Each structure stands twice: as C-alpha cells, then as structure tokens.
C-alpha cells in the first residue's frame, strides 16, 4: 500500500487526539489523526467540563462554539438511607461564579474536528505494529497499519484511550479495575423537563447516582456501583441496561431519578467497568521515549469521580501543542527530530505529577462517596469529604494550562 512520511501522527480521534491536532494547527503544524472507528466516537453521551477545561478550550479557540451550555454553580447530595440533603458548591472560596458545564460529547468532538482539515482525520485506521528507526542521529517512528500502509512519523502521539497501543509500546503498566462500574446515558424530554441546572446526586452503600440537565430538554445521568462478582457479565443491550437500573438499583431512589432513566435515549446507554492507572506508574513510568509520547486516557486513565478525564485531556493537548509548536516555530516552521526527545520530555515532566494527583483524587472521591453506609463511612463522607476535602479538590480543578500564542 506504500509508505508516507508525516511530521506528527496522532493515534486516536477522541478528545485528546482532536484537541492536540487543533493545538498543533495553531502553530502551523498539520497532524495526521488515525482513528480506528468509522466516525467520531460519541460514546458516553455527555461529560462535565470544569473551569480548567474551558481555559484550555479558550486557548484552542473553540470555547465559543459551546457557549450555549450553562454553568452548574452548586449541587445537592442526598443520603439515600437517611434522606438528608447536603448542598455543595462548585465555585472557588473567593466566590468566583464559574462552575462546571456539562456538554454533549459529540458536540465537543465536532467543535474540535471542525477546526481541522477534513483530510487530516483518517477513520477506520487500525494499527498493527509500532517500531522506531534511527536516522541521522535521531529517531523516527514507523507505524504499520492493518491495511499494509506504513507511516513514518517525526513525532508519534498516542491518544488511543485506556487500551492504548502506544502506551503499551512505551511499557506503561496496564490500567487496573477500580472495583466499580458505571452506567451513563442521556434522557430526552420533548416537552421540556422543567428542572434547574443543578447537579443532583444520591449516595448509599456501594452506589452513587445522579443527573444534571444539559439543555431544557435533555438530562445527562449516571449510576455507579460496586462491580458484579467476577465472571458476571454486565448488561450489553440498552434495553437490558435500563431495565437493570430501574428494577435492581433505583427502586429506593427518589422518583425523579427513575423518571430520568425511563426517558433515556437508549442509543446513549453504556455500562462499563471503571479503570485507572496506578498514580505511581504515571510518576515513575516511561510516558515518552525518543519521539513518542501519550496524552489523555492513554497516559492517565482515571475514574470519573472528579469529572477530569476529558478536562485533563484538554490540558494535555494545550501543553503538548505548546511544547512542540514552540520548537517548530523557533526552527523556521520545521520539526527538528533531534529536539523532539527533549521537547516531549519537558511536556511529560510538566504533566506527570498533576495527572497523578488527579488520578488519586478521583479514586479517593469515588471511594469516600460510595464505600459504605456505616456511621464511620458516613462521617468520613459528610463531615470530612464534602465539608473539607471536596472544596480543596475543586480549587485544584481551577488550573490554567496557558495560551497558544506562537
């Protein structure tokens, strides 16, 4: 099928991959994005973007495309066992009225993809192998495709998710099961739902559920629980997922939650185990080697309990784009292969500790909210986590990944 040579090849056309391509485009670099799916991946229905994500989207020049989504400045957590309700704030201690906004995943992907030349995203592109070759004292990555095509890349970036081929090539440890699984979906009310755009959560022994309105007619909802016993299969068909949640998990939750689940667009329902990479494997692992690195879930898969999977991917994109773009511009619009190992190394060192802390915080958040209903755990959750730890975590989510001024 032939051999081609590219400046930058990005494996994966999800949030991290498309955002990185947009960041590089702002520096004048046209990256080739290889996506194994037949089109944009919209699995997950929606995602919540905290202020750090919006700073990154500003830098990428796409935040205005998502301006119709409004902030959720506060949330309510209901203890299923006692009926007690706590209010939690998503604003900083100084009162800045900037909260998270939940958006359609597809809308975000389309906003990013629209910034790129159509020919720069190759769908149905599956990788069979990766190798490196030395050329004039520098390294070049060689990507072998299943259709026989060979692509030589001056820089190779793996944005190919939790089961990343590129991270495996780097020798990173495989993500591990968290012991929990989650259902996510989108509810549609053609006549409108009439709810305020606040986050509603329900916590109990071994489970957590919640929802947040996206628009006047759509609501994003989730349910997470202790994973079924080993060997038990999670429901795969949307109708079975909906039935399982309604009949076995939501019976004692407030009627509004069951109503939301009943209004689900079945095509958006997913149920999957929650995985993460041990933070020490991120701190001490090989996140880059020569001219190859990773970003997004390929680098730092984490549980969704702080809603930082997509947010941190957007941070990665801006920071990686700035490091590569700065070198590119400095060298007269040329990728100098000999510099790439150092350039990628600087990106990795800038990201390593922050994402390791996000993985840790996300895991702790999920564990403390869902671990049990005994008085000890309830005290930890209500008096320690929601009152003390969570506000500190929210402040950590107000992060500025910087500009892309080249």
UniProtKB/TrEMBL annotation:
<dbReference type="InterPro" id="IPR036188">
    <property type="entry name" value="FAD/NAD-bd_sf"/>
</dbReference>
<dbReference type="InterPro" id="IPR002938">
    <property type="entry name" value="FAD-bd"/>
</dbReference>
<protein>
    <submittedName>
        <fullName>Putative FAD-binding domain, FAD/NAD(P)-binding domain-containing protein</fullName>
    </submittedName>
</protein>
<keyword id="KW-0560">Oxidoreductase</keyword>
<feature type="domain" description="FAD-binding">
    <location>
        <begin position="7"/>
        <end position="355"/>
    </location>
</feature>
<comment type="similarity">
    <text>Belongs to the 3-hydroxybenzoate 6-hydroxylase family.</text>
</comment>
<keyword id="KW-0503">Monooxygenase</keyword>
<dbReference type="GO" id="GO:0004497">
    <property type="term" value="F:monooxygenase activity"/>
</dbReference>
<dbReference type="Pfam" id="PF01494">
    <property type="entry name" value="FAD_binding_3"/>
</dbReference>
<dbReference type="GO" id="GO:0071949">
    <property type="term" value="F:FAD binding"/>
</dbReference>
<dbReference type="InterPro" id="IPR044560">
    <property type="entry name" value="MOase"/>
</dbReference>
């Amino acid at each position: 099928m032939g051999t081609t040579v590219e400046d930058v090849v990005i494996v994966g056309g999800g949030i991290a991959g498309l955002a990185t391509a947009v960041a590089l485009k702002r520096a004048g670099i046209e990256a080739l994005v290889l996506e194994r799916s037949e089109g944009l991946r919209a699995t997950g229905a929606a995602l919540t973007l905290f202020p750090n994500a919006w700073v990154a989207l500003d830098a990428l020049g796409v935040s205005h495309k998502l301006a119709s989504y409004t902030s959720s400045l506060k949330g309510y957590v209901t203890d299923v066992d006692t009926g007690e309700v706590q209010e939690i704030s998503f604003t900083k201690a100084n009162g800045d009225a900037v909260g998270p906004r939940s958006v359609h995943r597809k809308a975000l992907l389309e906003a990013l993809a629209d910034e790129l030349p159509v020919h720069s995203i190759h769908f149905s592109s599956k990788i069979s192998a990766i190798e490196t070759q030395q050329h004039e004292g520098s390294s070049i990555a060689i990507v072998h495709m299943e259709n026989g095509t060979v692509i030589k890349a001056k820089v190779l970036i793996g944005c190919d998710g939790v089961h990343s081929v590129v991270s495996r090539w780097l020798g990173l440890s495989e993500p591990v099961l968290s012991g929990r699984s989650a259902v996510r979906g989108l509810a549609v009310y053609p006549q409108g739902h009439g709810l305020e755009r606040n986050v509603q959560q329900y916590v109990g022994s071994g489970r957590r559920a919640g929802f947040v309105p996206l628009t006047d007619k759509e609501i994003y909802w989730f349910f997470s629980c202790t994973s079924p016993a080993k060997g038990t299969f999670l429901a795969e068909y949307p109708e079975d997922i909906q039935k399982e949640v309604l009949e076995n998990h939501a019976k004692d939750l407030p009627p509004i939650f069951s109503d939301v689940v009943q209004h689900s667009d079945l095509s958006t329902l997913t149920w999957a185990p929650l995985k993460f990479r041990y933070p020490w494997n991120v701190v001490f692992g090989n996140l880059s080697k020569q001219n190859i690195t990773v970003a997004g879930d390929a680098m730092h898969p984490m549980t969704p309990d702080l809603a930082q999977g997509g947010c941190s991917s957007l941070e990665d994109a801006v920071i990686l784009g700035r490091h590569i773009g700065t070198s590119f511009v400095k060298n007269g619009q040329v990728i100098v292969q000999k510099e790439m190992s150092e350039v990628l190394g600087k990106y990795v060192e800038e990201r390593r500790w922050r994402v390791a802390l996000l993985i840790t915080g996300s895991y702790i958040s999920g564990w403390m909210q869902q671990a049990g209903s005994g008085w000890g755990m309830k005290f930890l959750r209500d008096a320690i986590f929601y009152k003390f730890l969570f506000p500190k975590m929210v402040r950590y989510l107000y992060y500025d990944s910087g500009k892309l001024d080249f």
